[in-house]
Amino acid sequence: MLSLYPASLSVTPMIKFTRIANLSLMILLGLVLLLEATGRLPQRLVTLFGPWTELMALPIIHLIPWYALNDTAKPRFLRFARGFAAINLMLAIALCARVISNPDLLNRPPFMMGMLLMALLALLNFLGLNQKYKHLQLAVGPLPKQPERLTAWGAYMMAHWRGQLSLAQSFWVNGFGIGSLLAALMVIGLSRLLEVTDVSLRMLAAINIVGFVISGMLWLWAITGIIRSASKHAERGGSGWVAGLTMMLVFFNALAMLLSTLSSYLPQMKEYALIATGHDSMSTVVITSTPKGDVLNLRGTLGEGSVARFAAALKKTPQVKTISLNSPGGRLREAQQIASLLKSRQLNTYVEGECSSACTYVFLAGKDRAATPNAHIGFHQPSFPGVSDTTLAIASSGMEKYYRSANLPDDFIQRVLQIKPEGMWYPDREELLQARVITRVSLGSEANSLFDLQSRDEVFANLSNSSIWRQYERHSPGKMNEVADLIWNMKQQGKDHLDIQDAVKTATRDIYLRALKSAPDDLLDEHAQLLSEQLEAARHISPQACGQLIKGRLSIHRTMPEELVKRDTALMEKMLASSPRSVSHYMGSKEFARSASKLQERLSPLQRQVTANLAAYDDQPMFQCDAILSMYRNILRMQDTDRHIILSALMQAK
Length: 654
Description:
Among the domains are: 13-140, no CATH class; 154-276, no CATH class; 286-441, 2-enoyl-CoA Hydratase, Chain A, domain 1 (Alpha-Beta Complex), CATH 3.90.226.10. 66% of the residues lie in helices and 5% in strands. The chain has 29 helices and seven strands. The chain has helices at 13-37, 43-49, 52-56, 59-68, 75-100, 103-106, 109-140, 153-161, 167-195, 201-231, 240-276, 306-316, 332-344, 359-364, 389-405, 410-417, 429-434, 456-464, 467-475, 479-492, 497-518, 521-541, 543-550, 556-559, 562-577, 590-602, 605-612, 621-637, 640-652; strands at 286-289, 295-299, 322-327, 348-356, 369-371, 376-378, 440-441. α15 runs antiparallel to α16. 27% of the residues are buried. Mean pLDDT is 82; it is low at 1-9, 46-57 and 145-151.
């Protein structure tokens, strides 16, 4: 091919080196992409170098400078390439600035090497293209505007659109190569680029809409040119059956595109349009803070706008230390950016309700990650309306990388990726601890949902929805109003949630004790059986939990299995609704002394010593737990008369 430049225009060593560098990287990093696509690229390399390898591997970043530095490149293309190199250099500088401001990235030498290589190549491309452009101006003077030719991009695309190109070129180069392969590479490249940028979810949705439109226009351009070229194929001396076969393939391709548009693209476009216009189908998370501002409560779905709301809440409460979560999930993009803000502040995360799907991204960003035994932390594959299996696989790959960056074990991650979007896997407490999802088990009360209530009327309505509180009200009319006033006043005064809980227990203690003391024998038996099971469940959590249960300080609703919680509530309702017993027994009576002596014979010396003076063993909750559990188990094995005397006396002593 003849050179378009004068023979006097020399090719400098820098230009030669730049062309070789671009070509080498295209080959090398193209191989990296191929290995990653086939799953043969060692994960250790991806983790070390990060996403920069994927950005650098975008062919267009290296192809344009490489071709522009060739002697056959046209002056117009050289001007375009120089502008492209300038934009690429500015992007590289911006990325370098971001890396320098992030200490975590500075501590990864391989990552820094990849980023510096990208920046150096961008600088080299800009200098090389600028040098060639100046040399060309010196050799031939100001570059004249070139008339449109068939080989220019605009004329080439128009020639294809009109069917002026050969059928083979229209079908294979423009249809398969540009219309399909290049469009797919653009989508993949855009997805990779957006993964490492901090654009908002709304902007991301708008970019995806533009991408869909461009891809659709590219497909329409390719398919129209193929049809028109096929209709002229016989006139050019081509085979009629080849043209007919091409038309048939085009028909099936158009039919497949129509079906894909209806089943996949339109649902995605609709969802993206709602997000881009600020009408996300998922609601924005509700954020409240405790009076002291040390805990932020995040409730509800993580819809578009949740990041902005969370950032504003952090700005208002700089003293916050813990983020309490209760969310079924939401947008992964929002969750990732909330997690990034949370991690940069080194905040703790806490769950006593539910944290599923995208919420786990936020939870895993916590420095200390605590959950109550009854908390539900759920995992599954990502989902989005209309996504194909291929798109789902790409999204799952991103989820896999995120969970791996959170240091979750591979077997746990693979279990998550097997759960379909419509399903949910809730690992048990031991699985969460073993996988390091949670760093510790909480006994509850670290964040109180009462602080989510914004008025005294909401507090009263919350109490009214509880059947147990309705029973309290029946036994003591006006009690709910009294407790609602108490909670709201203490909340307004900025009291700690533990202080409020203690005050509520004190306010209802008299009703609770009256119900226990007057309960009939069958309900006391049921209470003893339930208490022994609760002690066993608390001991399984920790000795401290068992000790707190004995003292009446453990929140059974946050720590006990759901079945025990339901039985406890049902039993209290039955006690409140039952008729008072006719005869009660007391510890000072002779009948109690006889029955108690029989019980003492069943206990070990240490257990007798502990039950006689529980307070002396406050620093040894395991001894307390074993002694009280053994006592109730043995009470339940005694004859009816002795058992009922002891249980009645124990209740009267409370």
